[in-house]
Amino acid sequence: MSDQYLLSRQLDHLAELQTRYERALADNGYDSLLIASGAAPYRYGDDQAWHFQGYGPFLHWTGLAGQENAWLWVRRGEKPVLWLYQPVDFWHASPSLPEEPWQQFIEVRSHQEKDVPDLENTGRLAVIGDPACLGGAPGDHNPDELLRAVEETRVHKTGYEIECLAFANRAALRGHRAAREAFLAGESEFGISLAYQLATQQREADAPYHSIIGLNEHAGTLHYQYYDTKAPARPRSLLIDAGVRFRGYCSDITRTTPGEGEGRFGALVHGLDQVQQRLCDMVKPGVDYIDIHRKAHQGVAALLSATGMVSGLSDDSMVEQGVTRAFFPHGIGHYLGIQVHDVAGKPTAPPADAPFLRLTRKLEEGMVVTIEPGLYFIPSLLQPLMEGALAKHVNKSMLEELRGCGGIRIEDNVAVTGTGARNLTREAEL
After folding, report:
1. What residue stretches are annotated with the Xaa-Pro dipeptidase N-terminal domain (predicted)?
2. What are phi and psi of 415, to 5 degrees?
3. Which of 122, 152, 182 is the last residue of a domain?
4. Residues sharing a CB contact under 8 Å with residue 144, sequence separation 6 or more, in sequence order
5. Number of domains in the chain
6. What is the per-residue pLDDT across 82-138, written as a single tens digit (0 to 9) for each?
């Protein structure tokens, strides 16, 4: 894919956004909408700010993740206007923009103040963004119904968005390969993080989320947030959940690698990978995402039975009695786009058997989702199982052996097509 092709797709994307936003404005009785990019708040009691990545609807239009104090004005029947905050400043550099075709679609202006730009002929105006940044802006601030309509504009990705997500997958996989090599070479979690950043050429602060890099038992903490600087004496497993942001769009990929000599754990990784690929094959228009989640529990049950980790119970019984939830406690995935956990996924609450599920809709063409089953050895979840009424069905010695490996998660990013799915992650591995 050439840069020129991608930039031409961006013009189509912006034209589609204009149509979607004009419809949302009309349906909610507004003539124009002012979107604040936001600004990084300062840490309490400090003169240093948090790192900034921008407000979702602003990124949806511009992809400019690092532009603080910028404003985008969207009007019905008019060209959008973008104000970029570009003060004369010798303390900080102002981000510069390359000349690209999208600037023909959006009028770009510069301003040296953080305040709301002067607007004329706004009609009925809405303003959306971080309330702390809206200040004395005119118009209605963050009206609920319009916000819901704006979030809905992000559910069905344009062709441009899917190509950006595909690029973010390719870039992230370079990092995952480097991370795996660093792990097998005996690196620490910190060293693996550096290898990932070097391969992706993206600072962790600019990545879509803090990378999860867990060795051994750390892989059993779902959002493990630390990096040990010392490698374990016996490196048994690596779980890395890490992505890349490209033109505002996020990849979110997880891979698990067994250490040398970890045959039993390696067989489980291979088994869960097979389960994960079958779940990815379920993705197509009309499929209820909740059904994919429930099928994942059936797959985990089959894996527990096949390995002898749990015996004397049917797969259905394991699911019904909550055995699989002790090994797989989270949801099967979520929407993906400008945000890692993209918006509008839960018009209805998740079911009782999947309380942490972030997506409860039927799949439609243009949606992009993650598929990420897991199988973990988390003491706080397994202890009640091993001490309760079902304890006789659990192979305690096997669990004790595997506990030091932490767990397994395998995650791909999948776009729903008109007839099936496009696995953006697996295609990038070829």
Report:
1. 12-148
2. -95, 135
3. 152
4. none
5. 2
6. 999 988 887 888 777 889 999 999 999 999 888 899 999 999 999 999 999 998 899
